[in-house]
From TrEMBL:
Name of the molecule in the record: WD40 repeat domain-containing protein
Presence of the UniProt keyword Chaperone in the record: no
Family matches, as SUPFAM superfamilies: YVTN repeat-like/Quinoprotein amine dehydrogenase
KW Transmembrane helix (keyword) present: yes
Membrane-spanning segments: 76-98
Pfam families: DUF5711
Matches recorded under InterPro entries: DUF5711 (IPR043765), Quino_amine_DH_bsu (IPR011044), WD40/YVTN_repeat-like_dom_sf (IPR015943)
Length: 435
């Protein structure tokens, strides 16, 4: 297509111009002045009836580029606006701290006695002095088993749970479908651990010669070890690997008025001809480590008053030792993180601090308040005491700070935004966080 501003000339031959092609032709040409008014200027525009090269392509086969470009730009603008709106809404909801609770649904009436609850896979295991029951997050009871424990304690490992009478002689082992077996001991139970297969280990009180025993689900004794507290120290905690083949025991040793900790690992998954099943461990001076647990088959952690230590490997060796120079008030852990509530001496405030299992600090958050209960549930740290609660995400965002109007027994995260399952002296309720 020609430019509209370009000038074009069309010269018409005149009839009085002689033919110069013939022989002996002689013409005398005299220049005649031409006035400007006699020169016609034409602007040539293409006829609207004459399509150019691109317009000859049928409309259905190829749309004008400008139309497609406009539609693409318009589409991306819409996508951008919607994405921005969703992002703003998400940040508005997740980054603010809520202070109120709204009851959405009353699921169950209050249970009698000192009941408590534990997350059990996708369900919740509840226990009181009369029964152990499993119910889903919708509040539907899946099964219920009668027990008679005045002071029940519970340990859970993946698909198995063990419930015992503190300083009693009975243990009930549960699976996802209910009661699997019962165990009786001859001495009072002080500490207990369970593996995912249902193997149960206990520390039994026996004066200065405590006994460590392991049982299968049917109650058969697999291992028995009589401890000499005078030489080995007194066992204060124990843990089983998920497959039940390794046992970790934390011993408290007192020497020259100082308290030391000895960690000992035992392997019962392989035959040891020399009869010595110990495969690793270590001694930590001037430090008491009353909490030990396995994070995986070959990784375990011991937590004490000055920090924690991570062990790794089939024959466990110290991987990393982390010192904490603040008072440890509470601890909680899951498969990804180990969380602490720390306090400075003489300070009313607290610090929430997260570590991963490489020993690296990943979150540190200051907050006010003092809570006696702490747990990690579905990526959130939940602190509660009486009617008060505080909730943080694993990223350190403070989700909730306030009271719920009832004495809290437990609090679990539900699917959906700001939704929780509240167990209290008013029963089981589905609640939502509000401003």
């Amino acid at each position: 297509m020609k430019d509209k501003k370009q000038e074009s000339f069309h010269v018409i031959p005149r009839v009085d111009v002689p033919d110069l092609s013939g022989k002996r032709s002689s013409v005398r040409i005299r220049r005649k002045p031409v006035r400007k008014s006699q020169v016609e200027t034409w602007t040539v525009r293409p006829s609207i009836e004459t399509p150019d090269q691109e317009e000859k392509i049928p409309e259905k086969k190829r749309k004008p580029l400008s139309v497609r470009a406009k539609r693409t730009i318009r589409r991306w603008i819409v996508v951008g606006v919607v994405t921005a709106a969703v992002a703003v809404s998400y940040l508005t909801i997740t980054l603010q701290t809520y202070t109120g609770i709204e009851v959405v649904e009353q699921i169950q009436e209050a249970r009698g006695g000192n009941s408590f609850y534990v997350r059990y896979g996708e369900n919740i295991l509840g226990c009181d002095a009369d029964s152990v029951s499993l119910f889903n997050l919708e509040g539907k009871e899946l099964w219920k088993e009668s027990i008679q424990f005045q002071k029940p304690i519970m340990e859970v490992s993946r698909s198995s749970a063990a419930v015992a009478e503190l300083r009693g002689n009975e243990i009930a082992v549960f699976g996802e479908d209910g009661l699997r077996g019962q165990i009786k001991t001859t001495l009072p139970i002080e500490k207990m651990a369970v593996s995912s297969q249902g193997i149960t280990a206990v520390i039994l009180e026996n004066g200065g010669a405590p006994v460590i025993q392991c049982f299968d689900v049917s109650g058969n004794v697999l291992i028995e070890y009589k401890v000499s507290a005078a030489t080995s120290g007194y066992p204060v905690d124990l843990a089983l690997s998920p497959d039940g083949t390794k046992l970790l025991v934390s011993y408290m040793m007192t020497q020259n008025s100082e308290v030391d900790t000895q960690l000992a690992y035992y392997d019962f998954g392989n035959e040891h001809k020399d009869g010595d099943y110990r495969i690793g461990g270590g001694t930590y001076a001037n430090q008491l480590m009353p909490t030990v647990f396995f994070n995986s088959e070959e990784q375990s952690v011991a937590v004490g008053d000055g920090g924690f230590v991570i062990y790794d490997g089939a024959e466990p060796k110290e991987k990393k030792k982390i010192s904490i120079d603040k008072e440890i008030r509470s601890i909680a852990y899951n498969e990804e993180y180990l969380a602490f509530v720390l306090a400075d001496e003489g300070s009313s405030g607290s610090e929430l601090r997260f570590y991963d299992y490489s020993g690296d600090e990943v979150v540190s958050k200051e907050f006010e308040g003092d809570y006696s209960n702490m747990k990690i549930d579905d990526g959130q740290v939940i602190l509660f005491d009486g009617e008060s609660a505080s909730i943080f995400t694993e990223g350190g965002i403070h989700r909730f700070e306030g009271t719920v109007g009832a004495n809290i027994k437990d609090l679990f995260v539900l699917k959906g935004i700001n939704k929780y399952l509240l167990m209290s002296d008013k029963g089981t309720q589905r609640v939502r966080l509000t401003k």
